[in-house]
Amino acid sequence: MGSIQSHFCPFTCQLYDYHFVNENMNWTEAQQFCRKHYTDLATVTNRTDLETLKTIKGNSRGAWIGLYYEPGVSETFHWSQPGLEFNKTNANWNDGEPNGGKDETCVALCADLKWVDIKCTAITFFLCYKDNLSSTGQYFLGKGKNWFEAQEYCRNDYGYTDLVSKPHLQEIQRDCPGENCNKGYIFIGLFRATWTWSDGSSFFFRLWDEEYYDDSKKHHNCSMLTENGNWSVDDCGTRHPFICYQDHVILITESRTWEEALYYCRHHHHDLVTITNLDDQRWVQEKTKNATTPYVWTGLRYTCTLGFWFWVSDEVVRYKNWASPEQVNECDMSGAMETGGEHKWVKINDEEKLNFLCSK
């Protein structure tokens, strides 16, 4: 293989960015504008994104974002844990549940481990887990947070992985508080997808204002960023400024060797994609849903001479998401991502032909 020169960014390479448009349009007009001039209305994946939106919005009282509700469309349950499918035949609903519809879209446990759907903004107990539940201390029972805060806490604090999901529920009987169904709930990582991102993304970061649950707004089906930075809803025909996003990741569904993919990206776009943190990982794995190969190439490469993995953008490999511990004694290997399951990284001989992800 020829020499692979780095193709680094002078600043941190962002996988997407936001643009505030200070023109009053209804939601559909705003969506069309964003799709014409950028990628789509803003998709928000985490609290860092939200802080960025609040900054660029400035003093504007409100701005459309890309989340909307389409009445009559099938509403499905999903586990928060990436790659874990919800099987309704294994559900453990309490009598009469789920019954909350659009207003109760997060799931909690009763003390007897039955499931109930409740408001995501309820303040209650929650349960985090770590990947390995075979020893003590691998889960954490917290309290005093809504579902979104609880999910963020589990994913970002103290090394936990996420809110608990179905495979772990049988392990937690001893950690449940003693309240009955009418007094205490414990959030788990199950939610009903009633709202959809304009670009079709499956991200479930939400920060609804309590105003969202106002009965007078039950027919308001488009979301907006409020003056205080939370999210509310409004009639889709109302005119507001809006926020678009520009995507800098593209899936190429042609199958090429790793080197061919590298030079394709550098000729037509910028480079093979670099993943530096969990938020990048979640953004990139969303792009793999339309791949035609079981893995997709990334910009991850192994050097036999120096004996380590590196990103071709010159980023150091700090964040890692390997399916198994790296075997560093193999040459001619490059890093690819699974297009299904948990989207783990694997090492594959770079002469294999796969779809690939470019940064733009």
TrEMBL record:
Instruction: Tell me the ranges covered by the C-type lectin domain, including all copies.
Output: 18-129, 139-245, 245-359
Q: Which domain of life, per UniProt?
A: Eukaryota
Gene3D superfamilies the record matches: Mannose-Binding Protein A, subunit A (3.10.100.10)
Q: Which SUPFAM superfamilies match?
A: C-type lectin-like (SSF56436)
TM helices/strands, residue ranges = none
Its name, as the record gives it, is C-type lectin domain-containing protein
